[in-house]
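For the sake of clarity, the format in which proteins appear in this thesis is described at this point. The record quoted next illustrates the convention:

___
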Amino acid sequence: MKESELTHTIVAELSHPGEKRSANEDRYTVINYRTEVENRPAMLAVVADGIGGHRAGEVAAQITVDTIVKNLTSKKVSDPVAQLKKAVVDAGRAVMQAVEEEPEREGMGSTVAAAWIIGSQLYTTSAGDSRIYLLRGDHFRQISIDHTWVQEAIDYEIITPDEAKDHPQAHVLRRYVGSRELPKPDMRLRLEDDESEAQSEANQGLRLQQDDQILLCSDGLTDLVEDSEIHEALRSQSPREAVISLVDLARERGGHDNITVVLLVVPKLPRRRALGRRTTWLLATLGGGILLISITLIALAASWWLGIFPWISRTPSPSSTSMEPVAPIIEFTSTSLPFDVTTPTGLPTQVGISTPTVTPTPRDTATAFPLPTVAPSNTSSP
């Protein structure tokens, strides 16, 4: 049993020969690494269930695992779907070559289920009846598809799922690695029951979310443990406890086959990092607020200094008329002047001159200039 927290995924894994067999023909691996060019965190998990018994089924399973790992971890990631598919086909070639080299191994083969996580994206493939499950929130389902006679019969509505459980053809495989023909990897990642094949294949590269759980297993588990029981274990227990309890449950119910379970869990965001981001956001918001207030105060001070207040009327009241001297009212009471007035020719002589009353005129009301508009600075949340 091994559990470890790797670069970006928590792993719990366990394989047991079961209660009826002395040898364990299941093989699995979980490898954590970084891609060559992008230096992105990646994880590859492979479960293979050997076929052939005394014909070296465990050899076929080991060849399958080794070939897939070599194909996917030693090359640049360019097209994950195509690369994953090719890795399984190459595993089929390798098993066929091993049979040619040692004819007594004729008939050996292996199922395979593989999950490849690159960054936060999930890619899967399978051949045979080893399965892949996904738990997201309360939604739990098998995202791989069995390649058995009974599954095809269910798809064509020949039998019901309940009838398939104890059907005599339940373990007849329609696809696997090591047959006389190259394997046909299934690239469907099924998220809904009514999806077409094209829709399921388009789900490849599924963006994983925090707390997502991906479980890979051999049929030694699913023959004896219901999907609902797997769901409950993942939902209510830690990864380590869930894996152990599921294997123990299969053993308690007979354990007639090898049992292998690999569980991958997308971890929660570390609390320290979450607090750091929250603090950064608060500081940025506070800084933006202080800047806005400072700009507003500066603008108000400048307006006061220049005497520009758009909200105050500058029209003076009678008591505060301009203090500039005003010409006095001039009045003459006599119609004769104390000196002679020579009137130019052609103009009438004005004997009496009176000056009209000069009324002081208030100064023009000050023109109001609006304060400059200050736009709040954008404060982006991290």
Observations:
- The longest strand covers residues 41-51.
